[in-house]
Amino acid sequence: MDHLFQGFLDSNKESYIVRLLSKEDMSQLQQLQELVVDTLTEKKNLQPLTYEELDYILTGNGLMIGAFTAKGLIAFRALLVPPIDEEHLGLDVGLEAQELPQVIYQEISNVHPDYRGNRLQQTLAHLVMQELGELDQRFTYVACTVAPFNIPSLKDKFKQGMEIAALNIKYVDQLRYIFLKRLEGDGGGGEISEILRVPMEDVECQQALLHEGWRGISLEEDDGGYRVLYVRRESMG
What is the pTM of this model? Predict the structure, then answer.
């Protein structure tokens, strides 16, 4: 099968390839996801994909890529074309109904615990967004959810130029940041006119700012805690 990328791990120079995944990879996908969930100290930080969700993506409703060494699958990353329903993230961030079909979700990203620290999450993020351009359907936005205090995942999203556009309850009872990025252009939408740094645990303040059109653009460590850097832009009025 053709691969998208071939590289070497930083830690031990072991070679790996990245390729598109198919239903034939389902058992390896499920095994890796279970392993990643088992090693999490905060289980609520990750919303694992069910068999049905994995199957939905692998049967033409998005795309999934995986990194393999000689030992098997060590990391994967997924994009999902979501159904248009009342849970659609576009509604959380204030998109119009006609814009919802133009949103693709950046879904789960899993790295085998033994292979962390090799920048696989970054590499796969870059490659999966490149592959997005190969799909027949065109998308204007990419969106995703991240749990507060899931620091590696938050840093990953900010590094990709995604911004926090909402902070809402999702998945029945889980508080989640909702990230959004416009795929064409700078996505910035105007000069920054104000900046605020808000402690991550201050949910109400962040929600109030987001309702007023502020956006979270980066993360700062502060006395053992974390602050989110929020900006207001001129064109937001």
Answer: 0.90
